[in-house]
Predict the structure.
Amino acid sequence: MDPRPPLRLELLEAGPQLRSWDDALGAAVFAGERPGTEAPLECPPHLPLARVAMACLGGGTVIERWRAAGRVRSGSHGMVRYTHSEEFLFGRLHASEDGAADGRTGLERATERAYREMHAALDSAGFPHLLRVWNYFADITHETHGTERYRQFNSARQEALVSCGRSVRGNVPAASALGCAHGPLTLYFLAGRAAPQLIENPRQVSAYHYPAQYGPRSPSFSRAALVRHSGVTLLISGTSSILGHRTMHEGDPAAQTRETLANIEALLEEANRFEAGAFALDSLTYKVYVRDPNDLPAIRAEIDSAAGAGADRVYLKADICRRDLSVEIEAVGERP
Ligand code: 3EB
């Protein structure tokens, strides 16, 4: 028996602590708004790396590395590069926007292509259950062709899911969708052989049931996914200061952070109904997206006060998908 957990996250600023890539599945690299293309320290060339043009507010490069246990195999399928262990697959793709055609915007075409390719790769590798997807693209709140780009993304994501025979509400993965500085639409994702337990937040309307005022096609994601293996991993989606379906505390980043943490606590309470006492605010790994770097001290103070001063916490400068949101937080809980 391999004593290592079958799925494990390391979230760190690149440096000497990055050690060996031996049991890595892959990584996301946030190397600033004008990143170079060199691979991070000693990363073997076969590993899937998702590069995102986002600045780390600590000044360095953030590496989000997913590790597995046992034998890791790598492959590619269409645009997707992936690795997988016996139980889990990590994949990534970059889809450039090649302009509008056939009545669809460049972003809609790239999104549709990305989601079709992702599902084709999962089908071919034999990992039917998508657990978690990270979506990054530029100018997320900008309008083109009379429609906000985040809405274009939501429409195309739904249409692609339907054409792949996947659900658009209910049985949908945990996710994040954020605006980066530039570059292609970038997706990375985790999939499994077995279905996760999907969790919704009783304080919030499910995103896939948001009313039409946020766009004609709702965002297809679940609030969290509980993944059981020899231990348990809780993958918490991007979470924000939304109560019901409405933004709360516009213009007050500290209050938005408290509301966001209350939403995360509500998700922990749901998860702990199934995994008694496994998860608490002070033992999560946090990735925090901050719209305005001037708000960082206030946001950080709220997180430290609610969750204690933790190590595995990174702050990235990003555009949140609603202009009235100053902060979004995603988190991972791990019980060995
Ligand atoms: C929200 O709660 C904030 O479109 O995939 C969070 C996580 C958000 C994922 C997505 C959007 C997405 O609606 C925004």
Q: What stands out?
A: The radius of gyration is 18 Å. The mean pLDDT is 95.
